[in-house]
Amino acid sequence: MQLDSAQLTALASILRLGSFDAAAAALGVTPSAISQRVKALEDRVGTTLVLRGQPCTGTPTGQRLAKHAEDVALLEARALGVSGNTSPPRLRLAVPADVLATWLIPALAQIPDMLFDLVIDDQDTSADWLRRGEVSAAVTGQARAAPGCDVLALGALRYHATASPAYVERWFADGVTAETLARAPMLTFNRKDQLQGRWLMQKTGQRLTPPSHHLPSSHGFVAAAREGLGWGMNPAPLVTEDMEMGRLVSLDDALPLDVPLYWQVARIMAPALAPLTAAIRAAAREALVQKAR
Fold it and tell me: Which of 164, 168, 233, 153 is nearest to 201 (CA)?
């Protein structure tokens, strides 16, 4: 099935900008023209592509088609060269929040002729976006390549189980044991976050379920630990200074948690994304643990 490029561009603009009016302004046409293009595309593929609302969002098929349109634009830009008068191509990536907060931004900054649309998800599930065809690349914790993707090992992001000295004095005066860990309030990024559970299993050999705060912010996670709200697994790059200054302490110096990370990229996009892949690998070599402990 051959799809009209103007219709695909209209769809991608609506989902990126959130409304038909904003897409029309960006493309220099009327909202009526945008609506007609989307309606024609929906008739062509036989399903709804845009869920009207504030903002407009895409159905699963709509999101895949919008990503396809942006991928085609990126491939064309790489093949023909990006003009200074042309908007840079856009790339949608799935990345874990801690990766974004610690080492990814400098890598993205090495690619000035590209716009990035970042989807934030857990390292254990970020590859699912690739499997659904909703992103073109991902930093993931899964070594097994998603269908149609290449995978490259990046190294491991090291985490420390950390808390404030006052928190440790209050909750772990009798030692960091299975009994005390089962009672002490814990920090959890979101319901997908398994890092605390992994560390607890390594530490105690038990599946403990302590009371838990949900705090979906990498920097907020560190701040919460520093203020004594709970203990949590914090990435080493974010807490090294706090640990050196005594604002945070490790619950077990001998038991960090190294989380392997991988760069997965859709094979068809890999040549066009080679400069980004090189930048990400270089940044990872500087920030991540490069061999198993």
Answer: 233
Express each pLDDT in 47-103 by its tens digit: 999 999 889 999 999 988 988 888 888 888 777 775 545 678 889 999 999 999 999
Of 239, 247, 233, residue with least CA distance to 200 = 233
Task: Mark whether 97 and 210 lie in a shared domain.
Answer: yes
DSSP code of residue 177: -
CA distances from 25 to 6, 32, 176 (A): 15, 11, 59
Amino acid at site 154 = L
**Is 28 in the same domain as 65?**
yes
Q: Which of 249, 219, 214 is nearest to 235 (CA)?
A: 219
The half-sphere exposure of 42 on its side-chain side, counting CA atoms within 13 A, is 17
CATH number at residue 243: 3.40.190.290
